[in-house]
Amino acid sequence: MLLLNMTHEEVRNEILKDLPNVENWERHLWKDFRRKSLKMHDFPKYLFTEYVSPRKNTWLVSTKFFGKDDFSSTFGVLQIQNGLVLHQAFVNQAEQRFSTICTFIPHFFERYAQYNNLDLKGKALIKQMLKDDCSFNIDKTQYISGRKERHRDDNVHACMKNVVGLGYEVGKRHYLIKTCITYDMSMGKQKEIFESKRNDVLRVTAKPSLFTQPLTRINLGITEKVVEKLKRKLGMK
User: Fold this and answer.
1) Which residues fall within 8 angstroms of residue 199, CB to CB, at 6 or more apart?
2) What residues contact 46, with CB distance under 8 A and at least 6 apart?
3) Four-CA torsion 199, 219, 174, 180, nearest 10 degrees
4) Are 111 and 125 in contact (CB under 8 A)?
5) How many CB atoms lie within 10 A of CB 158?
6) CA triplet 161, 165, 166: central angle to 5 degrees?
7) What is the domain partition of the chain in residue ranges?
8) Which one, 106, 114, 166, 198, has least CB within 10 Å?
9) Residue 217, pLDDT score
10) pLDDT of residue 228
11) Which of these, 99, 20, 98, lies nearest to 55 by C-alpha position?
């Protein structure tokens, strides 16, 4: 169970230990999801389900329906810590193994609501963010005066559909996203780079049927080349 006094490493380890539980639970719902998808119209649609694991963690499972019999889920752990914190767990598509954790703190959601003119709080706000910005591209490279420079403090930015999340790396493949800015707030070369990464995210998220079950589709910085390589490996046309 996630506790308030845990270090970032302990949080990561706890999520990794619990991730198989929620994945197995979600697989048992596939028949129900498929049945629901066949009755749906006007895609995409979203379904949010909460699951309390044997380790007493509350998972928020976000299922996106791209079309009939075409859906996928993402997994995040909710934690109360001066407001709601979301620990979003991502899977490496090509290797089907855990890849990354992104932790979004309450201040991020406050700014997200402000910049998107949303009168929402708590779970309702988190669900809206997962609908609008479920995919993003994380980069540890900062762009200064047109040159690439690695920051010594491992600052990161996460380009999303509507905003750019800002934070830093707190552990191996574990990122703490503390706040966000709009694309209009970026400056100079940064604006061009951010817009390019944003377009990459939009191309991936707008394209249905990139993967089929039982693969879990979670788009974190996936390029078209990676998609095509995986489809060839799976024998998909």
Assistant:
1) none
2) 62, 63, 64, 65, 127, 130, 131
3) 40
4) no
5) 24
6) 155
7) 8-230
8) 114
9) 34
10) 58
11) 20
Q: Are 71 and 64 in contact (CB under 8 A)?
A: yes
- 8 Å CB contact between 174 and 99: no
pLDDT at 100 over 90: no
Average pLDDT score over residue span 24-41: 89
Six-digit token pair at 105?
Answer: 């703190």
Half-sphere exposure of 90 (CA within 13 A, CB side): 21
Which two tokens mark 115? 């910049």
What is the CB neighbour count within 10 angstroms for residue 76?
Answer: 25
DSSP-derived secondary structure for 138-196: EE-EEEETTEEEE-TT-EEEEE-SSEEEEEEEEETTEEEEEEEEEGGG--THHHHHHHH
Question: Rounded distance, CA 65 to CA 33, Å?
Answer: 9
Of 48-52, 91-95, 170-174, 211-215, which has the strongest mean pLDDT? 48-52
What is the pTM (predicted TM-score) of this model?
0.78
148: tokens are: 């690439």
* Residues in Cβ contact with 7 at an 8 Å cutoff, skipping those fewer than 6 apart: none
C-alpha to C-alpha distance for 153 and 34, rounded to whole angstroms: 45
Alpha-carbon gap, residue 30 to 36, rounded angstroms: 10
Please count the residues of the chain: 237
> What pLDDT is stored for residue 211 in this prediction?
34
Asked if omega into 54 is within 30° of 0 (cis), the reply is no
